[in-house]
């Protein structure tokens, strides 16, 4: 009966898109993508686009890696599913856990697999709650995160997310979640004074903990570089200072490396750059490079042992999901890790980051650009109406929407945040020429909008 309707009509009528206005979508319709190879995407109308955002900061190895498809197919033929419940398991999940323990900062020895980032954060909140109960500190139920942070949209994690959109109309009470200011150098009165920015964050965390009562605070969550908040890059040394402060205050330190993991900022994990080991770490996206869904929660021995010792041996710890440690996702994860390491993609990302930096620097003098910033292959271009005062464009201009649309016309995809911040996260497999192409197309887009 519906056979003559176009895909776009069906999409408009039936598919609810994540983080998208229902009515806006009915009005504009979808941009349906059809295929991809390396850095390049093709849409259903045959347009070729260079992807400067790796899908949604996830396709770090680029599109069309045949060896990943083969790893998935081979695992599906051999054993498409094995539960992790009741002591069952599968070889790929075990091997992937081992590799994550080996690759991550020393001391993160235990891995719980999830389906993505939101439920990795949700699992962290639940296990932390269990941990504090188990070690006899049941009053530790308050969580602190950063303004402008994004930690997914599960019912618990959405509260740690401090972006207004994720709360408008979703007002389930989350009174146990609190925020301190984002270390945002460009928009700080302390711009240029890294030590003072770090000291202020440390003081704000101490003040917040004092206000809530140290005995009541469970953990502090942060992204090493805030992604969805507009690629906010804190000064070098910030992460280490926050780790040390959490240790002093006896609260758990959780890094959400869903975006920054797997070479996005240079090293395998952003924590490594500052020699920091968190108590827990959340991962997703680059773990399977977006080819199939998977996330992970890494846990230190301290947290694991606390939970283990506090529970009666024969009583199950009631947290789980049917697809935790899914063998096909794990097989894909193993092949993706092989591509990063033996396949040389992590090293290529580190090499081409120099070209990425040059591209950002080349746009700094553009009349619309107030700030460019980045680390590794994670970057942002912040547009302003006035460079001197850093005034933002009038929201009524809907510049972010126009930017995205113009960029699409110019054959480049990036993220255009509401504050007119262009987010960039190209795949780590990019060549120098492709990196230059990305920046040429962005420059043209900005010129077109002048
Ligand atoms: N944490 C961070 C830092 C993220 O950037 C995201 C997603 O962008 C999430 C958690 C949620 O991950 P997912 O969308 O896989 O649920």
Describe the protein's architecture and organization.
- The chain is of the alpha/beta class and about 450 residues long.
- It folds into 2 domains: about 30-50 and about 345-450, Alpha-Beta Complex (Aspartate Aminotransferase, domain 1), CATH 3.90.1150.10; about 70-340, 3-Layer(aba) Sandwich (Aspartate Aminotransferase, domain 2), CATH 3.40.640.10.
- Helix content is about 40%, strand content about 15%.
- It has helices at about 5-15, 20-30, 55, 65-80, 90-105, 115-135, 155-160, 195-210, 240-250, 270-275, 300-310, 325-340, 345-365, 400-410, 430-450; strands at about 35, 40-45, 50, 110-115, 140-145, 175-180, 215-220, 250-255, 280-285, 295-300, 370-375, 380-385, 410-415, 415, 420-425.
- The strands form 3 sheets. Strands 4-10-9-8-7-5-6 form a 7-stranded mixed sheet, with helices on both faces. Strands 1-2-3-13 form a 4-stranded mixed sheet. The chain has a 4-stranded antiparallel sheet with strand order 11-12-15-14.
- Helix 5 packs parallel to helix 12 (about 325-340), helix 13 (about 345-365) packs parallel to helix 15 and helix 14 packs across helix 15.
- The model has no long low-confidence stretch (mean pLDDT about 95).
- Bound molecules: pyridoxal-5'-phosphate.
- Pyridoxal-5'-phosphate binds near residues 116, 117, 150, 223 and 227.
């Amino acid at each position: 009966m519906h056979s003559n309707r176009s895909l776009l009509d069906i999409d408009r009528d039936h598919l609810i898109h994540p983080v998208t206005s229902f009515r806006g979508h009915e009005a504009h319709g979808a941009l349906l993508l059809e295929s991809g190879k390396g850095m390049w995407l093709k849409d259903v109308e045959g347009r070729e686009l260079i992807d400067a955002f790796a899908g949604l900061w996830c396709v770090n190895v680029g599109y069309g890696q045949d060896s990943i498809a083969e790893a998935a197919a081979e695992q599906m033929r051999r054993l498409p599913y094995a539960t992790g419940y009741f002591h069952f398991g599968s070889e790929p999940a075990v091997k992937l856990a081992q590799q994550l323990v080996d690759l991550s900062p020393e001391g993160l020895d235990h891995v719980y697999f999830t389906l993505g980032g939101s439920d990795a954060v949700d699992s962290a909140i639940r296990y932390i709650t269990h941990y504090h109960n188990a070690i006899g500190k049941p009053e530790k139920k308050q969580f602190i995160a950063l303004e402008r942070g994004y930690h997914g949209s599960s019912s618990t994690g959405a509260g740690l997310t401090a972006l207004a959109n994720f709360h408008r109309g979703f007002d389930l009470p989350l009174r146990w979640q609190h925020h301190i200011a984002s270390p945002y150098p460009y928009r700080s009165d302390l711009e240029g004074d890294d030590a003072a920015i770090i000291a202020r964050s440390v003081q704000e965390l101490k003040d917040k903990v004092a206000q809530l009562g140290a005995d009541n605070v469970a953990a502090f969550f942060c992204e090493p570089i805030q992604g969805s908040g507009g690629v906010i890059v804190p000064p070098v040394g910030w992460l280490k200072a926050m780790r040390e402060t959490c240790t002093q205050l006896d609260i758990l330190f959780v890094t959400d490396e869903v975006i920054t993991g797997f070479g996005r900022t240079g090293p395998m994990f952003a924590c490594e750059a500052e020699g920091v080991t968190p108590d827990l770490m959340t991962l997703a996206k680059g773990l399977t490079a977006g080819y199939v869904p998977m996330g992970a929660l890494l846990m230190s021995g301290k947290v694991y042992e606390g939970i283990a010792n506090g529970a009666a041996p024969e009583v199950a710890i009631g947290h789980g999901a049917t697809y935790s440690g899914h063998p096909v996702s794990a097989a894909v994860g193993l092949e993706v890790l092989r591509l990063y390491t033996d396949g040389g993609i992590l090293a290529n990302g580190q090499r081409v980051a120099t070209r990425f930096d040059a591209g950002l620097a080349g746009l700094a003098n553009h009349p619309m650009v107030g700030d460019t910033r980045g680390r590794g292959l994670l970057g942002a271009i912040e547009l302003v109406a006035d460079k001197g005062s850093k005034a933002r464009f009038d929201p009524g201009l809907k510049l972010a929407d126009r930017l995205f649309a113009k960029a699409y016309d110019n054959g480049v995809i990036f993220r255009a945040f509401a504050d007119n911040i262009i987010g960039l996260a190209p795949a780590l497999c990019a060549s120098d020429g492709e990196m230059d192409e990305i920046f040429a197309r962005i420059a043209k887009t900005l010129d077109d909008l002048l």
